[in-house]
Amino acid sequence: MTTRQRTRVTVNGRVYEREVEPRVTLADFLRHDLHLGGTHVGCEHGICGVCTVLIDGLPARSCLTLAVQADGMEVTTIEGLRDPETGKLHPVQQAFVDAHGLQCGFCTPAFIMSTVELLRDNPDPDDEAIKEALGGNLCRCTGYETIIASVRLAARRLREQSGPA
Amino acid sequence: MKAASFDYHAPPTVESAIALLQRFEGEGLDTKLLAGGQSLMPMLNMRIARPQVLVDLGKIEALDYIRAEGEAIAIGSMASKRAAEDSPLLREQQPLFHAATLLIGHRQIRNRGTVGGSFAHADPAAEYPAVALVQDIRMRAQGPNGVREIAASDFFVTFMTTSLEATEILVEVRLPPFRPGTGWAIQEFAKRHGDLALAGIAVTLRKANGRCEDVRIGAFGVNATAVRLPAAEAALNGQSATTENFARAAAVAGESVAEPLGDVHATPDYRRQLVKVLTERCLAEAAARAA
Amino acid sequence: MAREFPRLPEELPTSAVRYVGKEVRRVEDPALVSGSAPFIDNLQLPGMLHCAILRSPHAHARVLKVDASAAEALEGVVAVLTPDDVKRWANAHVTSPPGWGTHCIAIDKVIYVGEPVAAVAATSRHVAEDAIELIDVDYEVLPAVASAPAAIAPDAPVLFEEHGTNVIQKRVYTWGEVDRVFREADHVVTASFRWNRCGANPTETFGCVCQWDLTDNSLVCHGSYQVPGFWGLARSFSLNLPANKVKVVSHPMGGGFGGKGGARGTDIAALLSRKAGGLPVKYIEDRMECLLAGGSQSWDRRYEASLALKADGTITGFDVKLLDDQGATTETYGTISVAKPLAAFTGNYRIEAARYDTTLVVTNRAPVAPYRGYGPPPHFLVLENLVDMAARKLALDPADIRRRNYIRPEQFPYTIPSGNEYDSGDYEAVLDKVLKLADYAALRKEQAAARAEGRLVGISVVNTVEPGVFDWNAYATVGVQGVGVPEGARVSFDVLGNITIVVGFNLQGQGQFTVAAQVAADYFGVDITSVKVTTAATDATPPHFGQGGSRVGVAITGAVLGACQKLEADFKRVVGHIMGGLPPDAIELMDGRLRVKANPAMGMTVAEVAGTMLGRSDLLPPGMEPNPTATSVWTAPGRNMPDEEGRCRSYLTAATATHVVMVEVDRGTGHTSILKYFIVDDCGTRLNPASVEGQLQGAVAQGVGAALLEEYVYDDGANPLVTTFVDYLMPSIHEVPITRRDHIVTPSPVTPLGAKGCGEGAMHTTPAAITCAINDALAPLGIEMTETPATAQRVWMRLKEVGAAR
């Protein structure tokens, strides 16, 4: 048995400090140690993108990151998007509901996390930019059409929210 | 699909990392460096790789840079591919390297994967090694005895194997100046966008009086390491930049690949064909860019 | 009692339909976008152990010894399951023809790579995986059967030695005078087709948490179960338990598509729990297990098929010979998958006679499992390509040859030669609409211009029929009896008038909870937000089946309507009584009020009635229970036993779609680019149009995968070469065309509200449409691609054969 490592990770603004076995992935750590089950696991070898979270603000596959690697980092998961006071959905989450950007919903948190980052840097992405940002997320249900529509809807609402440039 | 057990260290400096490597070598422990982990982690999860110790270079902030040094550009090995993608310096001064970066995986991979990790992992289907061969990129490795420079042609040995010693760390890749007026292109063929290439070609060439010179063609995904295709280069050097000549050189490229890989996705014959087609397309694209 | 259902949404008891047929935001979605939906791997129970399974590295071998002592000694290991335990405690799976099933763990012999050999329950998955590496197994490797042709070769090794053959079933169905129509034909087109294995691969793999109660000798299985009741029944057989002692709790599923194969995993986790003293055991299939031996391999088929035609293009006969590789066992209803094409054998066409010559074999490849569409997608690839080949031979446009063979609107209900009855349709209207949408003439001009430049551009016009709403007799066709498919709903009002609907299945992505809520909300004129839809465990739900066979949308509509009608009847009695002893038929339901027909101003809202029933027993008519709850179970009407040629009314509805696809093939790489994609479909009433559109586009994506990318490759020793997502290539956002779509609505005359099954949809059509377009592109070269997936390399090899590669 290997030495556990003291690991301090900020997740959705809250600091967690745990003794972690080095071989535990960030995905498993979030899901099973911190009980943040909204980050799903699809392949554990870095292809499907279902486990995407933001690490220091950038989308990353949490199955390809060890929990101990995230020591000192800030992680944002799907649970961190909704308004904690009112329960109101994040505009990107609401856009996925309104534009039917999901069916089974298993890959959806990952698509939403990738979208949040895309729209932070690019408030009005065209289809090519959307495809480039979401190319590492597989969806088996939707055929992607409504996902693209959801991203566009979210972008429009976020632009309106932030007022005219 | 969970990794076998290993010990983990995240040293803060190159020196402390090297000291750890020396120690574990002395103890006879199978040690692997973690430089982002986008290629290593799947192998760990599948238990294909089962090191006893992982030394994570992720906390060595001194290795995270992209900067101009004279006319060259130096990239610290722990700079992320995302940083390379977003670097105005690379975009403006190193268009081939920058274009190669954009072909690597997907955004999530580029965010966590590092430039040095890609070089040191030496996947035969990776883009950087071919660019390194074409552009004479030099690797800086640091070990117990200091720093040494390694030419790209000496760096990549075979599948997933470089000439780095067990106690050495790749600390920097240095891109020589990209001569203005040089035409370049990089294209690859994958079954899906963003997948590892079944074959890829990187080209640089110059034009003088309508003739091609200093033609360099690198192929990836077809042999155990990226390779230059000297016969094809020779077939075009000194020739005029015409479609016919590109096709002729491309045919030589396809024929000259020694024993292409065969796997579930592509037979050796098909890889030869891809080398030919991609070379022809790259030569045309590069010639169009050449001043 | 046969119920009279509203035939169309307009017949619901409301003056303005608010939900049914409208684009409705799904009630499922807020939890899913929040990451709070309880997928199975989110379940943690006290004391829960984690299972890992040791799998065979050999395709065919005798298991001589399994020594688990080192694993048992590892810290954290609680139980190890070995073949001896399974011999003692379990039976072979019964969902296969007798004698062709296997146990959850191999006994004596392994017959495919990935077959479970032993399993461990430990305190973590990591430790469980450490432990299985310590299990020592001795094998005696046997020669493997790597393919279907090899399985029927003389002297082939035999998997099931007691049978002495690898042929599970050989059956020839003959419908009409096939020999005569072929003899009298002016033209016969014949071709061979190869559909290589692909499969479902939902983003969530199968998972379960099983707990054996050693006192009560009963079992609870939580998991991603799409047909919970049936699954419980199957466990009772495999684990020697009374069926009412197996409780199945279905969790939301991250997709299914038919391919969540959980029989082995469930039985293994259950037996580990039994061996671990009743602690709960979680098994989450990982992706490599799913690819290797989960439920995600389907359709390993070789066809030889012919069409008989008259000189004018009238198709008179269709003759199909199928050699089907079921993999190592047939426990996942493979025989039924082969028979499902009977429900739509001749597609959209009037064809006089047909024959289906089927041979099903076992090989040492992984067992095949259901996948969206089940049997027909490969079958339609064959039929539609043959129609195109005939069109080329007769110099007819592909749209024209189809048009002249269509079943005509006035011919419905129409019985096809293989016995099923199509309920309704207007195929020509669908064709006309899609040709217009695509501007077909302009596409052909564009193609001509491209061809003049030497480009390989092709266009297809392909239509199929989607058999929807399967029933028990679809199984009975191939001798698998006793699989009924009731679908029940319990609708109840609380004292404040909120509605709860309990169904027997859980979320899988199709939006069926929303459909149930739409129907109830419109029926009782309430806001959809006051309707909650939920699932219950198998010991608390009405009879149910769950997702499968494009039927839940229709079936749950029938069940909810039935329950609403029962409640309405009770409510009328209550209101009549309160309004001075009026008979129930003096009361009517409209817009959420039970009102006196003669004086509509007098009445009560449904909430008032429900509140009165629960709160004021003094106001109820004599003998009425204070129970505003009703259960109804729907099943398709008019189903009959198959005759000796398998003919019966099996699938209730016949939806249709026509796809127009334009592709370009790269002469250099063989790569196919989809340039344009148009669809017009007709699935009757669109209960929630947004969900219907989602099913369509989603199935296009899977069709693109099957047609161009996805393939399980095996070597000559039956060793799988595709076991990761690096090699199994599901289409990404870059590979799926965004289709342009429209529809017509020909309501089903036989379903509640006129909806037809539509969940499998484009999977029937897309693989055929893409390959037909490729073949149109290749037509000037005189070559055809008749193998899926039409990968770039495969196409390039064909181009090279005729010197057309660049």
Characteristic terms for this protein:
heterotrimer, A: about 160 residues, alpha+beta, Ubiquitin-like (UB roll), DNA polymerase, domain 1, 2 domains, about 35% helix, about 15% strand, globular, B: about 290 residues, Uridine Diphospho-n-acetylenolpyruvylglucosamine Reductase, domain 2, Uridine Diphospho-n-acetylenolpyruvylglucosamine Reductase, domain 3, Enolase-like, domain 1, 5-stranded antiparallel beta sheet, 4-stranded antiparallel beta sheet, 12 helices
Q: Spans of chain C of 5+ residues with little confidence (pLDDT < 50)?
A: none
Structural class by sheet pairing and helices of chain B: alpha+beta
Structural class of chain C: alpha+beta
Task: Indicate the CATH architecture of the largest domain in chain C.
Answer: 2-Layer Sandwich
| N/C terminus separation of chain C | 68 Å
CATH architecture of the largest domain in chain B: 2-Layer Sandwich
> How many domain regions of chain B?
3
CATH superfamily of the largest domain in chain C: Aldehyde oxidase/xanthine dehydrogenase, molybdopterin binding domain
Task: Name the shape of chain C in a single word.
Answer: globular
Number of strands of chain B: 14
Q: Count the strands of chain C?
A: 29
Largest interface: A-C, 58 and 61 residues
Total domain modules of chain C: 3
Topology-level CATH name of the largest domain in chain C: Aldehyde Oxidoreductase, domain 4
**Tally of helical segments of chain C:** 21
Largest sheet of chain C: 7 strands, mixed
Distance between the termini of chain B: 52 Å
Task: Give me the side-by-side strand order of the main sheet of chain C.
Answer: 3-5-1-12-9-10-11
Question: Could you give a short description of this structure?
Answer:
The complex is a heterotrimer of chains A (165), B (291) and C (806). With 165 residues, chain A is of the alpha+beta class.
Account of the protein in words:
- The complex is a heterotrimer of chains A (165), B (291) and C (806).
- With 165 residues, chain A is α+β, with helices and mostly antiparallel strands.
- Chain A has two domains: 5-80, Ubiquitin-like (UB roll) (Roll), CATH 3.10.20.30; 91-161, [2Fe-2S]-binding domain (DNA polymerase, domain 1), CATH 1.10.150.120.
- Chain A has five helices and five strands.
- A five-stranded mixed beta sheet of chain A has the order 2-1-5-3-4, with helices on one face.
- In chain B, strands 4-5-10-6-7 form a five-stranded antiparallel beta sheet. In chain B, strands 11-12-13-14 form a four-stranded antiparallel beta sheet.
- In chain B, a hairpin with a 2-residue loop joins strand 8 and strand 9 (161-162).
- In chain B, helix 11 runs antiparallel to helix 12 (268-289).
- The N and C termini of chain B lie far apart (52 Å).
- Chain C is α+β, with helices and mostly antiparallel strands.
- In chain C, a hairpin with a 5-residue loop joins strand 13 and strand 14.
- Chain C contains 21 helices and 29 strands.
- Chain C folds into three domains: 9-37 and 486-634, Aldehyde Oxidoreductase, domain 4; 41-142 and 205-253 and 261-284, Aldehyde Oxidoreductase, domain 3 (Alpha-Beta Complex); 301-408 and 418-474 and 641-801, Aldehyde oxidase/xanthine dehydrogenase, molybdopterin binding domain (Aldehyde Oxidoreductase, domain 4, 2-Layer Sandwich).
- In chain C, helix 13 crosses helix 14 and helix 19 (689-709) packs across helix 20 (766-778).
- The chains are: A alpha+beta (165), B alpha+beta (291), C alpha+beta (806).
- The A-B interface holds A 1-3, 5, 21-23, 25, 28, 44-46, 49, 52, 55, 58-61, 63-66, 68-69, 71, 114, 132-133, 135-136 and B 1-8, 10, 34, 37-38, 41-42, 44-46, 54, 56, 58, 82, 105-109, 111-112, 193-194.
